[in-house]
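User: I'm preparing a small set of examples for a lab meeting where we compare how different chains pack in three dimensions. I only have the primary sequence for this one, and I'd like the structure in token form so I can line it up with the others. Please keep the answer compact; I'll paste it straight into my notes.
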Amino acid sequence: MKNCVRIALPKGRLYDSGTALLARAGIEIAPADGSRKLVFPDRDGRFEFIPLKPVDIPVYVESGTIDAGIVGSDILREVEADVYEPVDLGIGKCRLVLAAASGLALPAAGSLRVATKYPRTTERFFRGKQLHVHIVKLDGSVEIAPLLGLADAIVDLVETGRTLRENGMRVIEDVASVSAKLIVNRTAMKTKSVDVRHLITQLDTVVYENPGQQD
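Assistant: Understood. Below is the structure token output for the 215-residue chain.
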């Protein structure tokens, strides 16, 4: 399978919806059959799939080590990868928001501390408002940062907002809408154009012509 298209799948919340979408497009991943293999073929032998941490997928695809991948637009905007984004898959929809503790006024912009997993995106957001803030980069749960006094506000993903409400927080403003994208390496778009474009067409058909089962 040396010349097949290699596709990265995101571990975590997008894995099941991503593989389900591929199956609806006629691309079924062969079962792992209990092995510890890191690379799995599809049933027709046209593709190879590699599950990866979402944050690593743009790095692999941009480098050309992997030809294509499924990844959230939140990560794409954060890492600013130089890749094609031919299809918005319409799955994994949520929002990136600015949130803070309910009932508390935020300090002035110059002294505002914002905790987030998305420092670049957050910096761009406030720069667009011509505001300077102190950004605290975190890799784990950010909701607790204001409760412990590490930050005044957070920028993080929300789906329903339930976690924020349970932690006594409110959404102040939307930063960006988020959904999963198909991304493709720029060289692979040329060297494997037939298979890559066929993949894009298959996904396009499901996403745009038959969207009823999207989440």
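A couple of notes for your slides: The longest strand covers residues 169-178. The chain has two domains: 5-92+179-213, 94-177.

User: Perfect, thanks.
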